[in-house]
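Revision sheet: structure tokens.
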Amino acid sequence: MKTWIEWNIQYTEAMALKLVPELNRNERKQLYKKYVVMNNSHSHTCSGTFNIPVMFNGSNSLVSEQCAAVTPKSVGWFNQKEGNNPMRAYSETYAVAPTAIASINVPSDEAKKIDYLNGRARDIRNTFRDTTIRKMFHFDGQTLPMTYRQLIDAIKNDEFEIDEKRAKRIDARFAEYQNGDESWFDYSAFDGLTFTGFPEPDKDGYAAAQKELKAEYQKVKDAIAILDAETALAAVQAFEEWKPSNAPTLH
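Predicted:
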């Protein structure tokens, strides 16, 4: 089986000779992936040939790999002259084997639009799921003072609780450290403290919002699959502005 570089070189050469359809680099990458999959799923190999997955009967599913052999028909060196300086050039022509390409699974414009819209909707969903909703319901939020002013305010306002059992262990360890019985002390100044002035995560609200998000995302996917591209795009754009019904009101 050929590497991507080997495969691409041969495809580019054959494309220049108009033996295969003209595809851009991304399209060729997709075609190469199919070539790899099909080559790995068949026991036969086509050594020395230019292998391209072949489509049959206009089907959108890849049925089989044929060895569309783009092999050298004639190879020859010939001399050319430019002024008094001799030059050598390599000439190669190709003949396509009888098992040549019937058709290649190149995405249509409509398929590209659907792929684009699905990708965009998926990115929006991921942002809501992994960032927006978590922040909205105080997941991954601040739990400790970040500045000396926040620390002073928390103490002044009595916005902290002490874990007495943990505090006793910390005090005992610190005494051992001060007496030289321990060479290191692995507690911070905040250990044993819980600061209560920060919002608690709203687990129920978070779960409800994620459930609504899942349903809304399915509606957008349905629109992309069934409706025309412009209407589906409008659905995706509306999805960007979506908010769960229980979203907290910002003050």
